[in-house]
Amino acid sequence: MFKFTAALLKEFRLLVRDRVGLALMFLMPILLVIIMTAIQNSTFELINDNKIPILLFNNDNSATSKDFVRTLEKAGMFKVIQINFKEKQNIRALMHKHDALVALTIPKAYFSQMEKQAQINAAKALESFGMANASGVKTNISLDSLDISFQPVLQESYRYSIRGGLQSIMQIIANKIMIKSLYSSINQKEMPDDFLKDMMKSQVTFKQTTLSNNDNATIPNASQHNVPAWTLFAMFFTVVSLGGNMVKEKLSGSFVRLKLLPTSYMLGLLAKQLVYLGVIIAQVIVIFSIGKWVFPCMHLPELNMPTNLFSLLFVVLVCGWNAISFALCIGVFAQSQEQASGFGSVSVVILAAFGGVFVPAFAMPEAFTLIMKASPFYWGLESFYGLFLENRMFIDILGTMLPLIIIAILLQITAFIGLKAQKLVH
User: Where are the domains of the chain?
Assistant: First the structure.
């Protein structure tokens, strides 16, 4: 027991002296989790809470055009900024001036064309019911196109959302025009406004449900996604400190002196892993505490902890064991501290990219599926998200934990083979 305690104390002293490694393991993930959560939360607010500024160049002054503008404003998605149509040639400067992300141009007599098309469709519909003769009705007319201009900074997904919102509003106007045309054709008089409002009332309602193992689950937020992901990223950056210390021991001759001691080097290796496992647990406590108590003070969404804390501890320990096993492999095979820190850091970033830390796993190309599932980050994130987003029980996360355990065992075996090959252990 004395030998093991001495080995633990020795590893702890080496760790405390490595200030650069400690900074990478604590300060870097703390900054990352704050910055990335703030960025993603701002993006969510842009789409969900804030209105999108839209410049409207309207060259149609009909009553239907005014109804369209009112509907656009009531939709809640857009902040409508109406600009005189004659200024359309300065559209780029005006978009920058008003910080508008999109501009919509309505051509002259656009809605009157829609009304004529609606009258044609109404006549054809009544003829199919045997209520009118549409032999003298003109064929379909061709509508002018609406011109939509986007700021180049907008990604394609946002453009789809904006186009979809505008198409929905335009469809409401088209439905109103069609209902009024049918009513006028049948009754030979204008439709009363109250009757039109009753006809246009939506009967469709939606009830939002978050899938989980209990009925008290909260809606996931930016913290639920980012805090576990960047905590996992921080775990694997133990490679800089642990891998570097192992290389330093090899180069300084400490390995030879350790072999002369009346104890097994495997005992020292176990001490290394336990010390760094303690560091990883400290990382988790620090980062989760920031998400739980500091984020609300920064006007960021609070991290909602899973109800099953035993499962969370199990996931943390297995993911930490993976990170330590990976660092051991790097430390065994690296020939210099530069190789350990350089290759270790780059490989962690690559594994994180394939594992879904930077880009969600569902957005990965199919060609990357096999590589993605070989990354411990993928299985670690699946386990964390299962707890934080779905409140899964211990039995439910075993399926994602098993690949992590297998990967850790393979890494431990690889590290041991490397030590044997270098004749550092018997």
Answer: 2-41+224-421, 51-189
- d(CA 327, CA 238) in angstroms, rounded, equals 7
Query: 61-83 burial, b if ≥16 CB within 10 A, otherwise e?
Result: ebebbeebbeebbeeebbbbbeb
Helix (H, G, I), strand (E, B) or coil at 26: helix
d(CA 271, CA 105): 70
Paired sense of beta strands 102-106 and 52-58, if any: parallel
pLDDT value, residue 62: 87
Buried residues in 349-386 as b, exposed as e (16+ CB within 10 A): eebbbbbbbeeebeebeeeeeeebeebbbbbbbbbbbb
Contact 425, 268 (CB under 8 A): no
Determine which helix (DSSP H) or strand (DSSP E) holds 102, and give its type and residue range: strand 102-106
CA 23/CA 326 separation, integer angstroms: 19
Longest dimension (CA), the chain: 107
**159: three-class secondary structure by DSSP:** helix
Residues with Cβ within 8 Å of 18's Cβ and at least 6 positions away in sequence, in order, are 241, 244, 245
Classified by CATH at the fold level, domain 51-189 comes out as abc type-2 transporter like fold (3.40.1710)
224/339 Cα distance (integer angstroms): 34
Rg (CA), the chain: 32
Read off the pLDDT band of 303 (50, 70, 90). very high
DSSP 241: I
What is the C-alpha separation between 67 and 176, in angstroms, rounded?
Answer: 10
Residue 308: other Cβ atoms inside 10 A: 18
d(CA 58, CA 390): 47
pLDDT digits (tens, 9 = 90+) for 386-406: 999 888 888 989 999 999 999
Length of the chain: 426
From first CA to last CA, the distance across the chain in angstroms is 22
For the chain, the helix, strand and coil percentages under 3-state DSSP, each to the nearest 5: 70, 5, 25
Within 261-375, residue ranges assigned H as helices are 265-289, 309-333, 337-355, 369-373
Q: How far apart are CA 389 and CA 224, in angstroms?
A: 7
Tokens of 220: 């996931």
Tens-place pLDDT, residues 205-239: 656 555 555 555 556 788 998 999 999 999 998 99
Q: Kindly give the interhelix angle for 19-48 and 2-17, rounded to the nearest 10 degrees.
A: 60
3-state secondary structure of 267: helix
The whole-model pTM stands at 0.72
Cβ count within 10 A of residue 263: 14
